[in-house]
Amino acid sequence: MFSFISAPADTFIDLSNWGKGVAWLNGFNLGRYWSTAGPQMYLYVPAPLLSSGKNTLVFLELEKLSSDCASGGTPCTINLLDHPLNYK
């Protein structure tokens, strides 16, 4: 769960260090991601889907996570961006 300090705006979720799966925000299916196969490394989140209060983001990860995220008990994180980053 997370919340915003100011009014929510259109956002992108960076899933480049995740594997393959599906994401939901507040019960709405945002889509599938598969960072190793691309190009679904970023999911677009329109502002109307975001609540100024609490938001719930759920992931169904279907593959193992990258070593950056899963090794040594390091928590897997996401970044909310105002634009998608270029990927290789």
UniProtKB/TrEMBL annotation:
Pfam families: BetaGal_gal-bd (PF21467). The keyword Hydrolase applies. InterPro entries: BetaGal_gal-bd, Galactose-bd-like_sf, Glycoside_Hdrlase_35. SUPFAM superfamilies: Galactose-binding domain-like (SSF49785). The keyword Cytoplasm does not apply. GO terms for biological process: carbohydrate metabolic process. Keywords: Glycosidase, Hydrolase. Gene3D superfamilies: Galactose-binding domain-like. It comes from the Eukaryota. GO terms for molecular function: hydrolase activity, hydrolyzing O-glycosyl compounds. Residues 7-55 form the Beta-galactosidase galactose-binding domain. PANTHER family: BETA-GALACTOSIDASE RELATED (PTHR23421). This is Beta-galactosidase galactose-binding domain-containing protein. The lineage of its organism: Eukaryota, Metazoa, Ecdysozoa, Nematoda, Chromadorea.
